[in-house]
Write a structure and sequence with these properties.
cell membrane, 12 helices, about 450 residues, alpha+beta, MetI-like fold, 12 strands
């Protein structure tokens, strides 16, 4: 009998006659060594990823307190709830608008800044919002878009532009001087008695803040004598800073109020004519039929005037929140695309220019196709990010606008922990969000594998 015939099972005889592990035993030993190194990572993945997913799936089939199995009731409730439909609709808007806007802006910035001096400084400025937390960015945008122009810089700019190019005047708080033949009701200031054509009706007003009087205003002047088809008069601020003057009478240092509309109202309530005061506060309503008219200053003269746009209302709130996201993440897209641009073979672009291609043709035929792998990765990453958006949507909208700006992540938190106390329905929303994010994650993983295999 040979020596090999008596060798132990699973052992081979070496050159020196010593036994060594078989191929199968070696593979098992390698497997257990690899498993030992991977064990910590597997434990963490199981505890932090696999277990929460499995538990959330199971929890979604139970009632709010977890004590009763309800089957698919939470999913039925989720898809029949108006707030969930609003959240899904807003998420669709986010997915369509935000990633495209960020990617396009990032591409434009990366390509254009590559051609100018001090490009690093400009890129730093554009990328700087990424250094700000989402919470801080939300506070910044909520303050910027406040409706009150004294607080919100956007409406302050709009009001400033309107005051330069607009011709409307507003004198909020205006009131009548007592015993001057004037009456005020429903914001309208009018003459107590009807005025005959050819007559004069003056309006000494009080209660107007001096800072609302336009800079173009001049000292009030007495109106000229009226013709037979006219009614004339003067509208002025019956107040002198520091005191002085006679109440109800035009005098020095009493400013006229320009831009005030004055109506002549007939007995049947129709407006027979109107005029606007000049810089001295004088007006002339002409073309009137002979008769008597009530002279009135419409309430529109005394409102706050143009105060900008209610940006944080339900109508515009989603757009404001998306704009804040673009402000933050456009810099990320720019940096990613710029890194791909720096690794590009520039000789292809130069060859195209030498063949007579203009810059648009070079960009469309050479630059954009070569950058397409990076652009796709950036775009898909942003889609995943916007599907999970929470911070900005929670911080920026005021209380009345929160339902209109709702998204799935905020709805999930609100239902589970923000007063709803229904973790069954919240778990169902979490599974919906996971199913929406998974396709984009799979696409990204495939892209990374393709890039690694090249």
């Amino acid at each position: 009998m040979t020596d090999s015939a008596v060798a132990p099972v699973g052992m081979d005889r070496g050159e020196g006659g010593e036994g060594r592990p078989s191929h199968g035993a070696s593979r098992r030993r390698t497997f257990f060594i690899a498993l030992g190194f991977l064990a910590p990572a597997l434990v963490l993945l199981g505890a932090l990823l696999l277990y929460p997913i499995v538990y959330t799936v199971i929890r979604s089939f139970f009632s709010a307190d977890g004590g009763q199995f309800t089957g698919f009731d939470n999913y039925v409730t989720m898809f029949t709830n108006d707030s969930t439909f609003t959240a899904i609709r807003n998420n669709i808007i986010w997915v369509i608008v935000a990633p495209i806007a960020c990617t396009v802006l990032g591409l434009i910035f990366a390509v254009l800044l590559d051609k100018i001096k001090w490009s690093t400084a400009f890129k730093l400025i554009i990328f700087m919002p990424m250094a700000i937390s989402m919470l801080a960015a939300g506070v910044i945008f909520r303050t910027m878009f406040q409706e009150n122009p004294n607080l919100g810089v956007v409406n302050a700019a709009l009001v400033g532009i309107n005051s330069v190019f607009g011709d409307d005047a507003a004198y909020p708080g205006a009131n009548v001087r007592p015993k001057t033949g004037l009456a005020g009701e429903h914001g309208i200031i009018r003459s107590e008695q009807a005025i005959e054509t050819g007559g004069e009706m003056n309006f000494p007003l009080v209660g107007i803040r001096p800072d609302t009087v336009p800079e173009a205003a001049k000292p009030a002047e007495q109106a000229q004598s009226a013709d037979a088809d006219q009614i004339t008069g003067t509208v002025w601020l019956d107040f002198v800073k520091g005191g002085g003057g006679v109440n109800g009478e035009i005098g020095a240092n009493k400013p006229g109020l320009p831009g005030v509309r004055v109506d002549a109202v007939a007995e049947d309530g129709t407006i027979a004519g109107h005029a606007q005061t000049d810089d001295t506060g004088r007006y002339v309503i002409d073309g009137l039929k002979q008769g008597s008219y009530t002279v009135a200053l419409p309430a529109a003269n005394f409102d706050e005037g143009y105060q900008g746009v209610s940006w944080l209302s339900s109508t515009f709130i989603t757009g404001v929140v998306i704009l804040s996201y673009i402000w933050i993440w456009a810099g990320f897209a720019m940096v990613m695309i710029a890194s791909g641009l720096s690794a590009m073979d520039r000789s292809l672009q130069e060859a195209a220019r030498m063949d007579g291609a203009n810059e648009w043709q070079v960009f469309r035929r050479i630059t954009a196709p070569l950058l397409s792998p990076v652009i796709i990765v950036v775009f898909v990453t942003l889609i995943i990010n916007v599907l999970k958006i929470f911070d900005l949507v929670y911080v920026i909208p005021p209380g009345a606008s929160k339902p209109a700006a709702n998204v799935i992540a905020v709805e999930m938190w609100r239902v589970s922990f923000g007063g709803g106390s229904n973790q069954g329905l919240g778990s169902a929303l979490a599974i919906l969000l996971l199913l929406l994010v998974l396709p984009s994650m799979i696409i990204n993983v495939k892209r990374f594998r393709e890039e690694r295999q090249r």
